[in-house]
Amino acid sequence: MFSKFRKRKVKTVPATGDRGLLVFEHTTAVIRAERLLKQQGWEVRVVGPPPELRTGCDLVIEFPLLDELAVVRLLTGANTGPLMVVPVNSMLLEPVDLLHVKELGRYLMVRAANMKITVDKETGMIVNVSGGGCPDVPYLAEQMVNKSLDEAPAPRDVGYTLCAYALQIAFDRSVELCSALSGRSLTRPCPLSPERSRLKGTTWSWARSVLPSTVGHRP
Asked: Which of 12, 68, 116, 180 pairs with 158 at a CA distance of 20 to 30 A?
């Protein structure tokens, strides 16, 4: 009768690697946990779960496995404890990168999960926002399309669903790549302000090191 009031135990798999995955029941828990961990200074990233770990939630958090005890203690104390903590100790448990980048002539398309943003590399103008299926996607597109990366609002500031969260990831990568493109002699710099140009001064060679690994993925 009183079992439902007991604290849920976190299932932990013995560690053999340096990276671990935090598995949650709902995407809202992933978003909350990511925010809590980043606020405390941990380097974490949200990725897609490998097939063996899919629980109905399309996201997991990759984190430094050496910090497992402190991470679980923090999240459990905030009522956001994970269902499982799994070490990435084989190729079978490699997480799936949410981000895919593709060059389309003068355009750069970045997809995060099921959301896509397409940017004109020469002007930094957002020419398309699509994907998802959430109710706020049309509004996000209306607010962002035909605006430069410097002028458009951040998706997290105007959206409220998982689609807005995914679009924010794609938006951030678009800003990074557009900034990197500023070193390419054949392309004019994208008009980014210092606060958004987090990789200011990075050259096109860096962007080329990122793009080949993702160009084969169809958006």
From this structure: 180
